[in-house]
Structures are given as C-alpha cells and as structure tokens.
Amino acid sequence: MTALKRALFLDRDGVINVDIGYLHRAEDCVFVPGIFELVRQARKAGFDVFVVTNQAGIARGYYSEETFAAFTGWMLEQFAAEGAPITQVYYCPHHPTAGIGGYGIVCECRKPAPGMLLRAAGEHGIDLSRSIMVGDSITDMEAARAAGVGQCYLLQHAEGDDEAGLDVVRVSTLADVSQDIAARNVGSR
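RE: above sequence
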C-alpha cells in the first residue's frame, strides 16, 4: 500500500494574492510577499500544494466560472514559472444567501465546511493529519480543523479573534510559515 501524502492547503484571497475583493483579472493581481517561496519550500519538504477558495463572486454574478477558470490558469502559470507548482485548485462557487440561480445553496464545499479539503484528500491520497492549512480567516481554520488537518497557520491580518478556540499558529508573514515548514521537516519526508 502506498503511503498517504502530506499537503499544504492555501486559501487564495489574502494568502496567495492581496485581497481586493472578488479578484478575477490578472491585471488586478498582486501576489502576497513570500507566497512563491512558501510553495517552493513545501514542495521541497515533500508536500503536494492545493488552493481551497470560496468564490462568492461567481454566486453573486460578478464573474463567471469561465472567467474564474481563465484567471486560475494564469495564476497557475505564474506559480509554475516561479518553480512553485500548485497541484490543484478547489473552489466553491456557492453562497447560501446571496447566490443567484443554482449558486444560492447551502453546500458542503463552502468554508467553514470541510468539503474542499476532504475532496482533495480523497482524490489525491492525502493524510490530513500530517497536512498544513494556511488561511487568513477563522472560517479557513474551522474548515481545516473539521477536516482533521494537523497544523493550521492563521495570518495575523485575519478578521476577528480566535473566538472558536481553535488551536492555530498566528503568523504575520508567509516567511514565518516557510521557516516553520523547513524546521519541522528536516529529514521527515
């Protein structure tokens, strides 16, 4: 039997790119400092890397799934060019109250539900207990904990306090996460 792999799960807006609200065009994208190095470090340590992102802009009709897919393709090209390939992007196009048409539903994929992480684990043979989540909101942390992710990093610019009482590591930069991954994973592939 093949051993399960470890994964680094990344929220998109606020972790990969500066959150400007409903980003869907390459010309508006500014990458968060340290994101490429973090992905390179995770890859070097043997992690697969996934993006798990709520995309309420689709649900609200601000942009289409096709527009999102085009932007995502461009983003993946940027990561590949930086020697930091992303394994796969999972997204939730729904919103329970503001979604239009078929997008206005309560689903299992929208964080804080763990659906995207569980799907990635099932499709890619991921050991969630040995995996990492980096997010900038409590809902990111709640989704990761509900899925059984072993280590969660909450970027300091997150809204609100850790009122959920979740066991997370608060960091102020992605470099903090990169350094921690390097320190924790010396010889532990």
